[in-house]
Amino acid sequence: MREDRLEKPERPEEVEDDVAEGVVEALEPLAGSQGLGESARGLLAELESCLATHDLDRMVDFFTEDVVLVGDAEEAFGADAIRDYLRGMADMEPTVHWEWDRVAVVLDAPGVLCFAAVGSITFNDTAGQSLGEGAPFRVTCLAVQEHGVWRLRHFHGSRPQ
Questions:
Q1: Which of 35, 109, 147, 148 could be stapled to 16 by a disulfide with Cβ–Cβ 3.0 to 4.6 Å?
Q2: Beta strands 75-77; 63-70: pairing state
């Protein structure tokens, strides 16, 4: 398990993205900590970076053993299914790249972060150049802290029709 993974702040300094109304109100800042939206954006950036390595073990390690992943055309339930799903991503030459326009934290509790994001998806070649125009993309994620490391327990990504 990777120990250099993103750490969850104890309390947010400020909320830079949308926070679901009524779920989190009047957060008290703690010096030096990240905003809730930045924590979610950090996890999404780490996921993208992880996928860009094409290292299947590293990719699988980003998810919990009991992960549920749902996409447009496929779904994966559990460790074996996620390994099979991610093997296709590890074997393909282009890498996924997301641009997030909006990130909303839905739940922030000890050891749990649930959020949604809306933006666009493209694929980059080995030189990091886009292989086309971005397409709208949305995602919901549930991240949990296991042994001090953030891992995704749920990922639902899709392109709106």
A1: 35
A2: antiparallel
| Phi, psi torsion values for 141, nearest 5 degrees | -140, 150
Which residue matches tokens 């995704």?
152
Over range 42-55, report the average pLDDT.
93
* Other C-beta atoms lying within 10 Å of the C-beta of residue 64: 18
Model-level pTM?
Answer: 0.75
Token output for 11: 């309390």
Find the mean pLDDT for residues 20-32.
Answer: 33
User: Is the model more confident about 49 or about 27?
Assistant: 49
Measure the CA dihedral 53/45/132/83, to 10°.
Answer: 50
Domains of the chain: 18-158 (3.10.450.50)
